[in-house]
Design a protein that fits this description.
6-stranded parallel beta sheet; about 220 residues; alpha/beta; homotetramer
Amino acid sequence: MTRAIVLGGSRGIGKAISDSLKLIEIDVFAASKKDIDTSNLESVNKFLEEHNETDILILNTGGPEPKLFSTITKEDWEKYHNQLFLGFCTILQKISINENGYIFLISSNVIKEPNVKLIISSAYRAAFAEVFKVLSKEYAQNNISCISIAPGPINTDRTQELIENVKEYEKTLPMKRLGEPEEIGNFVKGIIENKVKYLSGVTINFDGANSNYIF
Amino acid sequence: MTRAIVLGGSRGIGKAISDSLKLIEIDVFAASKKDIDTSNLESVNKFLEEHNETDILILNTGGPEPKLFSTITKEDWEKYHNQLFLGFCTILQKISINENGYIFLISSNVIKEPNVKLIISSAYRAAFAEVFKVLSKEYAQNNISCISIAPGPINTDRTQELIENVKEYEKTLPMKRLGEPEEIGNFVKGIIENKVKYLSGVTINFDGANSNYIF
Amino acid sequence: MTRAIVLGGSRGIGKAISDSLKLIEIDVFAASKKDIDTSNLESVNKFLEEHNETDILILNTGGPEPKLFSTITKEDWEKYHNQLFLGFCTILQKISINENGYIFLISSNVIKEPNVKLIISSAYRAAFAEVFKVLSKEYAQNNISCISIAPGPINTDRTQELIENVKEYEKTLPMKRLGEPEEIGNFVKGIIENKVKYLSGVTINFDGANSNYIF
Amino acid sequence: MTRAIVLGGSRGIGKAISDSLKLIEIDVFAASKKDIDTSNLESVNKFLEEHNETDILILNTGGPEPKLFSTITKEDWEKYHNQLFLGFCTILQKISINENGYIFLISSNVIKEPNVKLIISSAYRAAFAEVFKVLSKEYAQNNISCISIAPGPINTDRTQELIENVKEYEKTLPMKRLGEPEEIGNFVKGIIENKVKYLSGVTINFDGANSNYIF
């Protein structure tokens, strides 16, 4: 039976992906923050002792609180360096992905259009996008597809917290609504159940036509 | 019943998309070059007289023969200006896409990494990418998703003609093989059957990790 | 003596570049629309009969009036296809650039972040950017540098016409002002007078930190 | 008198920029690794005690040795996280740039087209590019221009070490040669001496037409 590990799998986008994959008879381990805290490399290494192999891996983690550049401390940088970058690198250095597998990275569209309040997220997620791009060429040799999804405004608890008046904000969006986590879950499911493999090394905005950059 | 029009639907990637959509009970009109020749605006307008409304539209057409810049004639430019750009603009000006519909553009990854031999294709496909991006924001108001797929080396008759020694070429690719048209067909099917709508205004490389640009 | 041809050299950015180059003892031919109208291929060909060789070439032309997609006619597309794309291609097919020369393209930042009102400009300027990128590799063999400048809001007559309340608009810009044409002129001059040659094949936004895309 | 601080100013590109700026009567402090070691935050903070204000700042530092992903240690990541990212962030949090000033970032074109051997450099330089882009909009309010230069193959000691057979490598480049550090120095000088201010928030490839991505 195909197995999947979904990081941050107990809520938001991670939970939606877990739920979608369960519909197609995949044996999903939806890891919560208790199972693995990517901001803590000890926690990451301990997790890897028990989970060192999978068919499908979903790299997914929450982002930092909004913070202006001038107020970011060394501790902030180091925590999120671990959470958004070094934890994922450590996982990919140690975990074995089975042939014909998939790695999905849930990133953010702030890597293409960086955001003053989410500057930490823009920085470290962009750093990991570089690593993931390079590695996609190596994983390709085992027919493993590396797909990065860069969501825009999605209807999660976090978005509800970040944005003051969601109803007003939605009116400014091209689709007049936030995206639903289930849409990302179903997108991932659609790729896997249809055995789409040649989609790899790509960053896919998932933002309801909200971004402005041409590509 | 949901209806789809697939341009260039009788061969290659277009045929694969037609075949995939038929599997999910979509009423597909797979238009061949006899039905509509996008290099000929009269043919385009005649086609639109009979086909002025659909749920799903697949904008797809072959590219020009390889030609070096210095040898391209005014006639070449004008023919492919119609085929790769103006024909599609004319269609979008006149056809009505039903609410909750989809428009897929089958483009090429030479719009991101232009190719000396495919310079005509790089130029006019990039031009249309700009139009499609702008329009994605308008279509979003009716919950219509605009998705551009930019294939790399796919196993079609055309690729077999363009590349001298396909077997040798495949060894240079990250996945050691061309992509199959069916993978694109199944990718499109996966999006539609899973009702993924928030994916819009995006250009998705489909090239087996072959491109080098970060995004 | 080094010679330069500046298209659209009688006003706006073109005039500013002409004026700057004259300061460093370059023999500048500032071509006006009377000398060459790039929307008219006959005019282009006639110009090339007399001007078939130069050290420095500045490809520069005005853009179209703002127009929504649904209202653009076949005649509009064809006129600006000539003006923004095919005229420049014709020039580069026929003109000889001397070794160690320069070609500057004055484009627009709407090729990276397309604009609903300037959709024609976004499309055809992007198309030419593809051609210019490909050719930069060929020109490199003769140590000719190809530099594309993509201006944002610059203080020209055209901007004054396009924007209703310029004073209010300026307050929304990061630098709280439009750019001055002289800044572009001086930038071009700085590259040439300092013999910077390894800058080539690049598109440089010139927009006072106004764009949002990371690169 | 205008003052400049050039990090990594004792060799390579940094030295070339220092030398160029001295030609236009700028009071240059060419900081060597003895003055400030950006991989060591204590060294950075100590430097900032004495140098907390300038007109022109050149953020420049060497990159890591080539290393494959699987062999990179936690210590490597942390060292270069400091050297290529956190050191620069610390500087920008504490140093005061005078009105009408300039900040140049000397980055690398591996942030756009990441390199398997230079994966650390691709990652952390991309991270800092995000920070620099966001800050460019804030600095703009004081008419301070933020310009990122992304060099390709430049004729420095480091390139001579990295590349086995430089003569053979040069034949593969569009200009058939490496770029000279002086060209970057002169480019920077040309911008400053010509008071070009509206160029800001931009990443400029400096690679002799070697990159393949359209922008």
